Amino acid sequence: MSVVFDNLDIYWAGFRTTVSLTAYSFMLALAIGVVVASCKVSPVVPLRAFATTYVNIVRNTPLTVHLILLLFGLPKLGILLGPFTTAVIALGIYTGAFVAETVRSGINTVGQGQVEAARAIGLPFTSTLRLVVLPQALRATVAPLGSLLSALVRNSAVAYVISVLDIMGRADRLSVLTAQPIPVLIGAAMAYYVITIPLAFAINALDNRQRIAR
Amino acid sequence: MSDGLVLADELGPRGRRRVRIATAVSLVLLAALAFVIVRRFQAKGQLDWDRWSMLFSWEKSGHFLFDGLLVTLKAALVAMALALVLGPLGTFGRLSPIRPVRVVATVLVELLRATPLVLMIYFSFVFISRYLFDLSPFWYLVTGLALYNGAVIAEVFRAGIAALGRGQREAGLAIGLSEFQVQWRILFPQAARNMLPALVNQLVTLLKDTSLGAVVLFPPTDDLLSRGRSLGEFYRNQLQTLIVVAAIYIVINYALSRVARLLQHRRRQTAVAAPLATLDPELAGDAAT
User: Considering only alpha carbons, which residue of chain B is nearest residue A50?
Assistant: First the structure.
């Protein structure tokens, strides 16, 4: 394992890239997800159709294909971006579809009676949404969004195939350089655990709290 | 599919007019978006027919991609079969009354689930080829997928058993079954049936993940994605070929998710007092790869 400890600075650089890759793409995914979910519950038919199409197309395409399609496709359309930005866009688009489904199903967990009661006391649509539905829906969404974030951290490792130097990318190079792939890869797994394991505990805790609150 | 909540009363004349205006505006916006994209493709010559024509010919590319698709499907099915063997082992391990077994199973399942799948496939490749034996890339891919999905499925079954309620286990013990018999003959079959939609959705995730073999392994697996890449290089139309490859994945996965949804509806109708699992099967694939 000394090969890991001798190269901690390389792991640290990869770790920072993984964190920022995840952070940027999660922000993009949240933005896309909220917009698409709003389209999906709106009374406007074309917007609903757009949301359904987006989710069905994006969710059923492998992330690898998203990455490679953007890598080859964008330059051919005259859009030149670095690998990091390309990866952020691919991860954001992909995770956005799952965020949209999560937010929508969060809205669906709010009981029909809640809405009927809100309407019965005369609240208009916007107030019903803002004061009654969304506060409950968001609480139900936090834990699933946490799982999506955890999945995103792990999925971001795929970005190394378009030569982003995240944990996985650095480990790939380091294992070729040192010819000791096994300890190098175990080190990389540890670097991911630093993020994913505390996240899993946090999600569990949130999940339990929310279950009690009901 | 239920549209969920009805957030407002039946719209009045003013509301209906607003919706009509919003419909018109959104149609214009979506059309403009489509127009911009198509224009961009056209301006860069990406819509030229001689970049697309060979993709619609069976001799020139159809059969080549089809053979790749068969490899993709085979990898997904073999990995799923192995994961369905490993998964219950993990579940029983975690629910075992013997403490050391429980601890080992919990640690293993949690670690496997917390590892990026790419890393796992890469690792199985390096580890097996160095210390054990030489296999084809197909089997390195399947090993990585089976380990990861085994852990995911172990959790799916565990959630399914947890959703059954204590009465089932207590009744089993009361009539004199052993702990193992209760798990294997009473809890597991019910959980498996309740979790069928979640399992089909996991198969969709797994099928998408087989594409990692085309980019992580060297030499790559001979699947749909890597065949698409070779074809795109050969005809110099990567963008077009990849779009066709993506469309193939979409059609197959969409069909599979429809099956999952159908199973779920059937189960809701026939569910005999079985408490609904807390997992939303559409989101259960916590690995959103």
Answer: B30
Determine, for residues A182 and B126 on separate chains, whether the beta-carbon distance falls below 8 Å. yes
**Confidence (pLDDT) at A209:** 74
First and final C-alpha spacing in chain B: 25
Given this model, what pLDDT does residue B46 score? 81
Write down the mean pLDDT value for chain B.
85
Contacting residues for A5 by C-beta, under 8 A, at least 6 apart: none
ipTM of predicted assembly, 2 dp: 0.88
Could you tell me if A126 lies within 8 Å of chain B, comparing CB atoms?
A: no
Q: Is the dihedral of CA B109, B110, B113, B119 positive or negative?
A: negative
Higher pLDDT pick, A214 / B31: B31
User: What pLDDT, on a 0 to 100 scale, did the predictor assign at position A87?
Assistant: 95
Q: What is the mean pLDDT of the segment spanning A182-199?
A: 92
Q: Position B210: which residue type?
A: T
Handedness of CA A33, A38, A40, A46 (dihedral sign): negative
- The two structure tokens encoding residue B81: 């079969």
| SS (HEC) of A24-87 | HHHHHHHHHHHHHHHHHHCCCHHHHHHHHHHHHHHHCCCHHHHHHHHHHHHHHCCCCCCHHHHH
Q: Residue B30: its pLDDT value, please?
A: 94
Cβ-nearest to A65 among B2, B40, B249: B249
DSSP annotation of B183: I
> What are A182's two structure tokens?
């096994």
Q: Alpha carbon of B83 to those of A205, B221, B235, B239: distances in Å? A: 28, 20, 38, 34
How far from B52 is each of B34, B55, B60, B239, B270, CA to CA, in Å? 19, 6, 11, 10, 48
B 31-50 residues with CB below 8 A of A?
Answer: 40-41, 43-44, 46
Q: How many CB pairs under 8 A join A and B?
A: 190
Q: How far is A194 from chain B (nearest CA, A)?
A: 10
Q: B87-134, pLDDT tens digit by residue?
A: 989 998 988 888 999 999 999 999 999 999 999 999 999 898 888 888
Q: Flag if B242 and A147 touch (Cβ within 8 Å).
A: no
Confidence of residue A159 (pLDDT cuts 50, 70, 90): very high
